[in-house]
Backbone:
């Protein structure tokens, strides 16, 4: 719980509130315009009727008999997000208990007690998100639930004292306050828990940003992220950051950051990329424009690590994901001049990640060239000779590595503005396994990941700019 010590108007919060008052057409089409329903005067007659019935029964010290239609409207948002994530009623009780204790179910658009904002009084300075995100009830609820699940692995939050769970997630200066509000939270829940609606309030359904011929003919999912427009300073990658077996979207920005160093943001795949798992500065200083990034579990701790090849191709750094990228695992000199893309993969099947370095442009042969460094030798010696493929080198060609055909051997995926080709790793990259036409332009970036867990790689197409929502939008084309 936070004690109100005065308020300072946040310009970002005011702008966010203005955006809520004028939702996009896609947002208006959702079952609930979540942020708008938490604004003063947005509650319905049904909300006010529920508040009237509950008022004599409320016993808590924070909200109690002051429950209003607006309180119920904000509670509906929280409960709706819980339902749409497929979580049971207990998750809603925990979230409602927290919001009652922290904000009395008011979506505070101005700072309360230091920089606390929103329904859950989350603080930007503590890594919960940006101010404009924390005053969005959908984002705030997702952020709370993500933290709860992360701090209570294996669904251990399903048992134990509700107040203690709230405290562990929030780390409040008043730990005993939560337990007094559990009764009221359960009472409100009994009136607003309904059938699960059809779509997440924070999810828009844009049309796929691409047209395709070949394996990727159907969009199996679409989403608008909470990321603003992206540009050439951002590197994108898909990785399972939180171990939930769902790919998450990692965004690395090496230049032009607030902190002056390299920063990382990770969007939650299980939350349809609408909520933030991590937003942090790293141990790395500012990057150079041509630095090359990749992601892989270098040290076998089941946490993705960040790999950075300096633009001259002479220095490689690997940053520990388990430390939230605050510690170097390896810093070494390598001979990878002219390399445009790097990707970690166990190339020789020895159980250690090797580094696949790809020259996609500017090669003497005019073809895509591939060199593999041995992970068991700390990347100090090559695994065989450099392979010159039959694929033409070209500016803008992206390369990644995945086991495309399930033969336990890494294959090379080349994505251009016009299509995709996969080269067989077992055949020394001399023959294609598949190809597809996927028409994109400079606004898009295509990544390969098994989005739906069917064992087949899908194509994740990110439209970085020029979207109707003003945010980066994603289309997943099924493989």
Residues:
């Amino acid at each position: 719980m936070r004690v109100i010590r005065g308020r300072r108007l946040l310009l970002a919060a005011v702008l966010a509130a203005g955006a809520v008052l004028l939702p996009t057409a896609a947002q208006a089409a959702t079952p609930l315009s979540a942020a708008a329903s938490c604004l003063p005067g947005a509650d319905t007659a049904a909300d006010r009727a529920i508040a009237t019935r509950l008022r004599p029964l409320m016993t808590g010290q924070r909200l109690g008999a002051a429950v209003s239609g607006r309180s119920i409207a904000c509670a509906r948002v929280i409960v709706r997000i819980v339902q749409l994530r497929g979580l049971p009623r207990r998750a809603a009780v925990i979230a409602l208990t927290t919001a009652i204790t922290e904000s009395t179910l008011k979506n505070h658009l101005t700072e309360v007690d230091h920089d606390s904002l929103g329904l859950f009084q989350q603080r930007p300075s503590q890594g919960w998100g940006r101010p404009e995100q924390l005053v969005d009830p959908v984002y705030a609820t997702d952020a709370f639930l993500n933290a709860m699940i992360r701090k209570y692995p294996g669904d251990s939050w399903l048992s134990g004292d509700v107040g203690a769970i709230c405290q562990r997630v929030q780390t409040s200066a008043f730990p005993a306050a939560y337990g007094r509000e559990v009764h009221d939270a359960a009472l409100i829940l009994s009136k607003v828990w309904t059938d699960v609606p059809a779509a997440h309030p924070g999810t828009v359904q844009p049309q796929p940003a691409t047209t395709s011929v070949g394996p990727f003919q159907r969009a199996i999912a679409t989403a608008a992220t909470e990321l603003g427009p992206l540009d050439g300073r951002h590197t994108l990658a898909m990785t399972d950051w939180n171990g939930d077996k769902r790919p998450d979207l990692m965004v690395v920005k090496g230049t032009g950051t607030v902190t002056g160093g390299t920063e990382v943001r990770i969007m939650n795949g299980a939350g349809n990329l609408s909520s933030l798992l991590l937003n942090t500065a790293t141990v790395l200083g500012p990057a150079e424009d041509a630095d090359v990034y990749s992601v892989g579990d270098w040290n076998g701790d089941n946490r993705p690590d960040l790999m950075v090849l300096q633009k001259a191709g002479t220095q490689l750094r690997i940053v520990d994901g388990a430390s939230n990228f605050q510690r170097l695992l390896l810093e070494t000199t390598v001979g990878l001049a002219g390399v445009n893309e790097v990707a970690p993969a166990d190339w020789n099947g020895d159980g250690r990640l090797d580094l696949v370095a790809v020259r996609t442009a500017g090669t003497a042969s005019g073809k895509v060239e591939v060199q593999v460094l041995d992970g068991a030798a700390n990347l100090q010696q090559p695994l065989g000779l450099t392979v010159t493929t039959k694929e033409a080198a070209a500016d803008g060609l992206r390369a990644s590595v995945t086991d495309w055909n399930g033969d336990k051997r890494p294959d090379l995926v080349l994505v251009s503005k016009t299509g995709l080709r996969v080269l067989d790793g077992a055949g020394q990259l001399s023959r294609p396994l598949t190809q597809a036409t996927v028409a994109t332009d400079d606004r898009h970036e295509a990544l390969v990941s098994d989005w739906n867990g069917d064992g087949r790689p899908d194509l994740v197409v990110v439209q970085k700019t020029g979207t109707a929502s003003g945010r980066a939008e994603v289309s997943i084309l099924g493989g």
User: Anything to note?
Assistant: Residues 1-34, 195-213 have pLDDT under 50 and may be disordered. The chain has two domains: 34-192, 219-477.
